[in-house]
Design a protein that fits this description.
Blueprint: E1 10-13, H1 14-22, E2 27-33, H2 38-53, E3 58-62, H3 70-73, E4 81-86, E5 89-95, H4 102-117
Parallel strand pairs: 1-3, 2-3
Antiparallel strand pairs: 2-4, 4-5
Length: 118
Amino acid sequence: MVPTPWEISTELKATDFSGQTLNSPGILAAVFLASWCPFCRRFQPVFETAAKISGTAWASVDVSDDDNELWDVFSIDVVPTVVVFKDGKAVWRKDGLLGRGLSENVVKEAISQMKLAE
């Protein structure tokens, strides 16, 4: 895997994320979350576990503010949304993780996509 400037499970504010992601080499899975979203709060522990055990780079991006430019930049229509980036370009995404059990499946799918993108 190409080294990235991300630490596993980095929590980023939107202002940091856009510039760093678009200019970073390597593979990164980012989850776009909002503090007001109950599904995001349910997904957070699954995300954190995946970030610790997957050996891949993950970032958590808070898009709680309705005026956040990342809603438009990455076409985020619903949260949580998981996007896998390779060399700053989105190569896979899953929008809206609703329901019990789906979170784990999405994480497994994201990890699989990250390995394919290497």
